[in-house]
């Protein structure tokens, strides 16, 4: 229940529905008991073995309530019989009325709880999605994406069902049992106390069955996260799987995971399914003892009316249904508790990268970017060591070097996707940790090596750059990105859907759409992270032309693999193992006859 207390905060906006559900459940429980008690008048009429009563009974207090009710019923039947009325009709109408009211309030209870359940489901998912996109990139380098998907989908659904079970556990079923027991006590105190001797024994057995459910449920949900991760990786790497004939290997991985899930699920559900038959069997055992003991009271002792005993048996059997529901609900709560734990692990994960309390909103870029003696490690290995550079407004800085030298890390640190461990990065003399993340990233446009596009139209992909862009602005951005002609040749032009990850477009086309998106944003600082490295020669020329158009009058940080694309840069920094080894223009570095020249000469022979 610890985790559910935290989850319950999501129910606050829907507390009106919760209150209405509780009220409806109170009436449902009341009329469930009255519906059974209403059988008594019918039985009295059918048996017809009571002496007629011609005088209205007098109330003698609660201790004589049962006798008063029985005498008043006899008086009513006597009166109606004297008037020549069909008493049986009255009794039938009474029974139908009670059962109608019982089912009406049952429907109302389920009607109100529907809004509560679905509302909580929606708000938890919304909160988890919001948290998912707020957490830094470093969080997902350590976690499986499929596990996150499993938590947002199946775990939230499990909590939803468990949440319903809790409301039944604390309101509906206990009230039904309480009202029923009150009715049983009113009929026979002695018989009811005899029954209560056996109820704790039943409760103990049921509790023992459910103890290991949370642990088993944890294993089921973890395994589900694993096979969803395998599925997500498979869909993302389908070309490689097919290209290397690795279908069998991935099939085996997936089947091994689903087999584990199958085994864990069987153990969990078999334990859970034991709840209902066990509680019913134990209940029938209590009723069998009740039949023996109550039968003696009717036949031998003559201390209990036969019609009342039949009603009493009906009431005692009615306890079985809520008792079964409570035992199932308690198991469901244990299972849901494991799901709630996994949900809260995401919701309560601390965001390592947050705005400072006094963070400013910076809207203009006026002078320079300064990287001042920074050091950074992803885990334990230092990727950058005591690194410094400066980029003046309107200038282009190119970062070159072998893979793993720390070039892309600079881009991640400038955009504050990661935070540095030592040193400072400043924009116009202001530490970027003192600038709000939203305004910092608003100053920057980003074009990555992998063109990250979404399964939507070209228009919607562009509007990510500027949500209120006009048609003219969209078309102008496409022209600057050298993408206007091919976009206009598509079946629906700018409103053409480009498929999952832009799969309907070529690599060069996708990259030019990415550039157009960055152009539309119109930021003063542009970061290009190996934007042409994955392209063929023809596409590279088209994209390079688009990049040159985009970089006009902008401050640019270019991370380059192909050195031919950055020869006109104002400053080129050559990196090796996280350190700067050379700095200068293309011509200056070529004259030095150092690392840069070697890299250029190596590429000229490719």
Automatic annotation (TrEMBL):
For membrane topology, the record states: Multi-pass membrane protein
Q: Name one Pfam family in it.
A: ABC_tran
Q: What is its main location?
A: membrane
**GO MF entries:** ABC-type oligopeptide transporter activity; ATP binding; ATP hydrolysis activity
Signal sequence region:
none
Tell me where it resides. Answer: Cell membrane
Organism of origin: Psychroflexus maritimus
Q: Where is the ABC transporter domain?
A: 369-602
Q: Where are the transmembrane segments?
A: 20-40, 88-116
User: Which part of the chain is the ABC transmembrane type-1 domain?
Assistant: 86-335
Q: Keyword Cytoplasm: yes or no? A: no
Cellular component terms per the entry's GO annotation: plasma membrane
Q: What is this protein called?
A: ABC transporter ATP-binding protein
């Amino acid at each position: 229940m610890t985790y559910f207390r935290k989850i319950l905060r999501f129910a606050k906006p829907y507390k009106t529905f919760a209150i209405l559900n509780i009220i409806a459940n109170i009436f449902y429980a009341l009329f469930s008991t009255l519906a059974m008690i209403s059988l008594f008048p019918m039985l009295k009429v059918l048996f017809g073995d009571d002496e007629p009563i011609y005088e209205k009974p007098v109330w003698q207090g609660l201790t004589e309530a049962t006798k008063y009710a029985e005498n008043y019923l006899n008086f009513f039947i006597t009166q109606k019989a004297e008037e020549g009325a069909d008493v049986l009709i009255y009794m039938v109408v009474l029974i139908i009325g009670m059962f109608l009211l019982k089912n009406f309030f049952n429907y109302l209870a389920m009607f109100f709880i529907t809004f509560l359940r679905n509302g909580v489901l929606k708000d938890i998912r919304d909160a988890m999605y919001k948290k998912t996109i707020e957490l830094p990139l470093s969080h997902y380098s350590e976690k499986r994406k499929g596990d996150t998907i499993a938590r947002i989908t199946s775990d939230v659904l499990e909590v939803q069902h468990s949440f319903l079970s809790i409301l039944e556990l604390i309101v509906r079923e206990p009230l039904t049992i309480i009202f029923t027991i009150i009715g049983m006590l009113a009929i026979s105190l002695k018989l009811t106390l005899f029954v209560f001797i056996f109820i704790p024994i039943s409760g103990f057995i049921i509790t023992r069955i459910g103890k290991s459910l949370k642990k088993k449920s944890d294993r089921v949900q973890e395994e589900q996260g694993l096979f969803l991760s395998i599925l997500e990786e498979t869909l993302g790497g389908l070309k490689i799987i097919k290209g290397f004939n690795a279908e069998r290997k991935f099939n085996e991985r997936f089947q091994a995971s689903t087999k584990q899930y199958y085994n864990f699920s069987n153990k969990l559900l078999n334990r859970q399914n034991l709840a209902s038959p066990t509680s019913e069997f134990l209940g029938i055992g209590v009723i069998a003892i009740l039949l023996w003991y109550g039968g003696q009271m009717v036949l031998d002792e003559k201390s209990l009316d036969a019609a009342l005993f039949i009603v009493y048996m009906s009431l005692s059997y009615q306890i079985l249904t809520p008792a079964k529901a409570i035992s199932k609900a308690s198991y469901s709560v244990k299972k849901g508790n494991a799901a709630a734990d996994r949900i809260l692990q995401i919701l309560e994960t601390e965001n390592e990268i947050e705005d400072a309390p006094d963070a400013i909103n910076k809207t203009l870029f006026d002078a320079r970017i300064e990287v001042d003696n920074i050091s950074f490690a992803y885990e334990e290995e230092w990727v950058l060591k005591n690194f410094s550079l400066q980029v003046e407004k309107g200038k282009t800085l190119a970062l070159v070097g072998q893979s793993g030298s720390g070039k892309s890390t600079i881009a991640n640190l400038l955009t504050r996707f990661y935070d540095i461990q030592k040193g400072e990065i400043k924009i116009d003399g202001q530490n970027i940790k003192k600038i709000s993340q939203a305004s910092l990233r608003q100053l920057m446009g980003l074009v990555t090596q992998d063109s990250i596009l979404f399964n939507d139209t070209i228009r919607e992909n562009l509007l990510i750059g500027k949500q209120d862009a006009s048609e003219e602005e969209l078309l102008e951005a496409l022209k600057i990105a050298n993408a206007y002609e091919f976009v206009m040749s598509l079946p629906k032009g700018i409103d053409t859907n480009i498929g999952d990850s832009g799969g309907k477009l070529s690599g060069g086309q996708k990259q030019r759409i990415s550039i157009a998106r960055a152009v539309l944003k119109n930021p003063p600082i542009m970061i290009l992270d190996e934007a042409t490295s994955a392209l063929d020669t023809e596409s590279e020329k088209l994209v390079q032309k688009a990049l040159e158009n985009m970089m006009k009058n902008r401050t640019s940080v270019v991370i380059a693999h192909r050195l031919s694309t950055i020869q006109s840069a104002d400053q080129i920094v050559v990196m090796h193992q996280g350190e700067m080894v050379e700095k200068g223009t293309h011509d200056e570095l070529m004259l030095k006859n150092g690392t840069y020249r070697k890299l250029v000469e190596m590429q000229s022979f490719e």
